[in-house]
Amino acid sequence: xxxxxxxxAALFLFGAPLIRLGAPLSRFGAPLLxxxxxxxxxxxxxxxxxxxxxxxxxxxxxxxxxxxxxxxxEQSAPRAQVIHRDxxxxxxxxxxxxxxxxxxxxxxxxxxxxxxxxLRADDxxxxxxxxxxxxxxxxxxxxxxxxxxxxIMGASVLAYASVEDARLVASRHAGARVxxxxxxxxxxxxxxxxx
Length: 195
What we know:
The protein is α+β, with helices and mostly antiparallel strands. It has five helices and seven strands, in the order H-H-E-E-H-E-E-E-E-H-E-H. The chain has helices spanning 2-20, 29-42, 95-102, 163-171, 181-193; strands at residues 80-84, 89-92, 111-117, 135-137, 142-145, 157-160, 177-179. The strands form two sheets. The chain has a four-stranded antiparallel beta sheet. Strands 6-5-7 form a three-stranded antiparallel beta sheet. It is globular. Residues 1-23 and 28-47 have low confidence and may be disordered.
């Protein structure tokens, strides 16, 4: 890719002066400029993205929430982290803040991988759980919405490793609903549209 970028830059440098001087483009000049602009715009640092399969979550330390600025490890699980196209990580003290982040563009490129902490079925949603929990890829987790959590700011979303755990928790709370990641994002968009 670096070689293509250099080639595109050279082609652009060769052809651009012809345009600035008002010279008519030869039958080779126009195609060269077109190719160079495509090569230059399509290649560059970070454009390859990250290796999604090799990506893994990192332990929480002193990271601040990318949305609200709070210290992530001090907030109740489930928490989240993402890796952007350029390799930059962002951390969130709640799945609600993660959803805010996913709905906005980032200067670090698209989000490549999302991890969420998963609770155990016997964790009481009404209590704060700041101890580290296992991480799962967001698309592999199952979510429960509709349970009020007094210690959580914003939308309350719980994450579990299995559909069975999520159903068990939801069955204990009136109005709770089990959703997958696609349904969670759809719920979030509807919630935002109502505001």
